[in-house]
User: What shape does this take?
Amino acid sequence: MTSTRQELLFLYSENSDLASPVRAWSRYSGAGTHHRSGDCDEAPYASVVAAMQDGWRVLQVSQLLPPLPGAELTATSFLKFEALLERFEES
Amino acid sequence: MGASEAVVGTPPLLSSIEMARFATDGYLRFDELVDPELSAAMLEAMLDPAFPPTLGPDPARGSGRPLADVLRGWPAVCEPIRQFAALPAVRGIVESLVGRGPVYDHHAVHVTAKGVRAADEWHADLVASRRKQFDIEILVFPADTPREMGGTMILPGSHFRHVSGAEIGRYQNFQGQLATVCRAGTVVVMHHALWHCAQPNGTDRTRYMFKLVLNPSGPQHLTWDTRDLDDPGVNEILQTTNHRWYGEELMLELVHRAELWKYLRGNDRDATYLLRRLDETDA
Assistant: This one.
C-alpha cells in the first residue's frame, strides 16, 4: 500500500529574484529519506524558478525587510532570500 | 621542567597575507603541521582515562588562566599536548592571532564513532563580537581523515554573522562549504563564530579530533609578522574575496571584514578605504 508524503525544499537565492542563482539549500522528507548537513555539494536546482519548472510548488518566499535603523552596515545573520517549496511523493 | 616547557625565542609568526586570509575566511589550515609520532602520541593521550574530560569552560578547570599554567597542571599523560603547544609553529600561530600569553578557555575531545550516519546541525560555537576581538579554536586531527570519515565541515567567511548556536540548523548545504579532509597532524585554526558541523563517519574506525579554545590576553593589534603589511596582496584578499554563498550581501561582508582588519591593525586607519567612504560625514 502506498501513501503520499510531503517533501520540503528550502532554496536560498543570491537576491530576491526567484530566477537568481541558488546559494544554499536544504531538503526535508516526510517519506523517510534523511537529509542532513553537508550531504550535497551541488545545488539540486540552479534557481527557484528551475525547481518550479520541475514540479515544486512555492509555499512561501521571505519578505523584503529593511535593516533596523543604525544596523544598516552590521545586520547580517540568517540568509535573506529564502524560498520554501513542496511536492508530494509516494512512499 | 619538562622538555615542552623549555620554550625560548621568537616563534615563526604568521604573515600579513595569512592574517588577511584569516580575517576574510575565518580560518587557516595547516596540513600535517604535527609530525606522525606526536600526532599518534596526542591521540593516545586523548584516549587515556586520566586525560582532562570534555566539560566546557569553567574557571574551576582553568578557564581564564594562562594556557601555559593550565597545561602545566594537567597530568603526566598530557605531555604530548604540552609538546604540541610548545611547537614553534603552533606558538607562532597562537601569538599571531591572540597575542602573547594566550588564555585557556576550554578544550574538547570530539569522538565520532564508526558507522555514525548522523551529522551535527550547522552551528556557531559563540556569537560574533561587536567589539571585534575573537577567540581561536584550534582543531587538531591526529589521524588521517578521509571524506567518508567525515571531518569537520566549515563555511568559509561565516564568522561575522550574528547567530546563536544551532539557530542555523535549518540550513544543510551551502555553495563553498568545506569538509576537513586531511592527513594526520593537520591543524585548522578558526574564529570562534565560524559556522561548522561534524560530518558522519561511514568508516569502521572511530574519528577523533582535539579542540583547544583560547582567548586573547589583550588587544589583537599587530601581533603577527607585519613586514608585509603593505603588500598589495593583503588588500586584494580583503577586498576581492567573494564566498559564493554570500549572494547580494557581499558588500556588508566586505564592511565587516574591513572593520576586523582595522581592529587588527590597531585601529590606526582603514587600509581598505571602504570604511572611510561609508563613515564620511555630511559637509
